[in-house]
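note to self — DONT lose this again. spent like an hour looking for the file last time. sequence + predicted structure for the chain T wanted, 199 res
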Amino acid sequence: MDTNEQQKTDGTGELMAAAAARAVPVVAGIGDGTLAAPTPCAEYDVKALVNHLFQVVEEFRKLAGKQNADFSGTADRVGEGPDWRERFAAAVRELVAAWSAPGADEGTTGAMDMPAPLVGAMALLDLTVHAWDLARATGQPYEAPPEVVAPLAGAVAQLSPTARSMGVFGEPVAAAADASPFERLLAATGRDPRGGGRE
């Protein structure tokens, strides 16, 4: 079963809701004192990664509705006020609702007219993997929803060549023989699931 078929079977909105249920508590648990801490994404500290994830959530919500998205700049959502955790949770609810709407999984979307299920998988991947990044950076537990991991593995395989050429993924890391499916997914994106960093 390819990624598009898996997404249609499970529903992008349903998968997004499962990922959101794990990601939102991680962001809610980030203390102000950890905002400058490094994350497994070498180019981001915690604050920068939260701001990036805000952008992902907001722009991929637009893509669900076949609207234009703008990834050219990242706003400082954390710096807009102390309620940024609540605003993030609200934005994620809107993301889930957008991808749960009829037609969100159909056709193409975005400037490159990519298949909508693959675009949804990109949002799902960021929400899942960056939640792990933030949890690891701030000492919180995180476990990806199992139903999300399988379709994401297919999406990572499909996206990897382009993502690596753009520096979005690092070089794959060798996963341990007893690695879980999620640890293998993290390793495929260039993260060391047991060491915490990105190669």
